[in-house]
DNA sequence: TGGCTTCTGCCGACTATGCC
DNA sequence: GGCATAGTCGGCAGAAGCCA
């Protein structure tokens, strides 16, 4: 292990590379240069237009969108390719998602794109850095993270083969956790139903509580 | 090369929404 | 209804492009 020199990371394996975010993949900022931005003449075409809200609502892959652009709208915006990892940099800082199709973005979103498997690894990496992004943001009426600050944030990257191994680990472990969450949620629902039924039966006289005594608690030494 | 125009990105402000 | 937060928009400053 070696010290990364980055406070929030601490020590990292010797072979991991430390680099600024801008060197991990091709970095692009969205745009929407037309004013006013809500000009109806630019919308309603065939090009998906994704706002920060669409990113925020997404767990991992962006597969739906609320607006589309026509040819004119497309010409004033910026299209990110399928597979781009996107991050919101205005208002709601540091929400991450992966684009599941080619789509256009406004300037409140930045994209990272690489042809290698690094896109998915980057997704998990950036996802874990939300607090870092927030702390790097400029605080005005609301938080804003500009491209210069974002691109200068340092990260530690393993070799591509190790990235794949880490991805496998994350997928396997999170699948196990998701299964457990589903199982316990079901149990919680059943307990809530039981509680409701119990209350109902008690207050309607279906249960005879005469002679009932509260359980005595064991004294913990 | 300097001045004008257009474009781009940053950031503050406004609006919508949700929660208490 | 009031407040907090989220989401989007508009204005402005600086950069880039264009032309004389």
UniProtKB/TrEMBL annotation:
Gene Ontology molecular-function annotations: DNA binding; endonuclease activity
Residue ranges of domain Type I restriction modification DNA specificity in the record: 13-189
Database matches in InterPro entries: Restrct_endonuc_typeI_TRD, Restrct_endonuc_typeI_TRD_sf, Type-I_RE_S_subunit
Domain of life (superkingdom): Bacteria
Annotated keywords: DNA-binding, Endonuclease, Hydrolase, Nuclease, Restriction system
GO BP, one annotated term: DNA restriction-modification system
Presence of the UniProt keyword Magnesium in the record: no
Any Pfam family the entry gives: Methylase_S
CDD domains assigned to the protein according to its UniProt record, in alphabetical order: RMtype1_S_Eco16444ORF1681_TRD1-CR1_like
Family assignment from sequence similarity: Belongs to the type-I restriction system S methylase family.
Name of the protein described by the UniProt record: Restriction endonuclease subunit S
Source organism: Methylovulum psychrotolerans
């Amino acid at each position: 292990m070696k010290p990364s020199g980055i406070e929030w990371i601490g020590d990292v394996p010797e072979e991991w590379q430390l680099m600024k975010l801008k060197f991990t993949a091709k970095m692009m900022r969205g745009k929407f240069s037309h004013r006013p931005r809500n000009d109806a003449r630019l919308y309603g075409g065939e090009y998906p237009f994704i706002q920060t809200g669409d990113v925020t609502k997404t767990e991992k892959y962006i597969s739906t969108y609320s607006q589309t652009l026509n040819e004119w709208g497309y010409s004033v915006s910026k299209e990110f390719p399928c597979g781009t990892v996107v991050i919101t940099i205005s208002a709601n800082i540091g929400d991450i998602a992966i684009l599941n199709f080619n789509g256009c973005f406004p300037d409140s979103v930045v994209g990272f794109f690489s042809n290698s498997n690094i896109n998915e690894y980057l997704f998990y990496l950036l996802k874990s850095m939300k607090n870092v992004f927030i702390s790097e943001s400029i605080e005005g009426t609301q938080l804003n993270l500009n491209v210069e600050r974002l691109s200068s944030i340092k990260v530690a990257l393993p070799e591509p083969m190790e990235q794949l191994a880490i991805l496998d680990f994350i997928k396997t472990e999170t699948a196990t956790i998701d299964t457990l969450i589903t199982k316990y949620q079901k149990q919680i629902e059943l307990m809530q139903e039981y509680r409701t039924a119990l209350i109902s039966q008690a207050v309607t006289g279906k249960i005879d509580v005469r002679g009932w005594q509260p359980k005595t608690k064991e004294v913990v030494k």
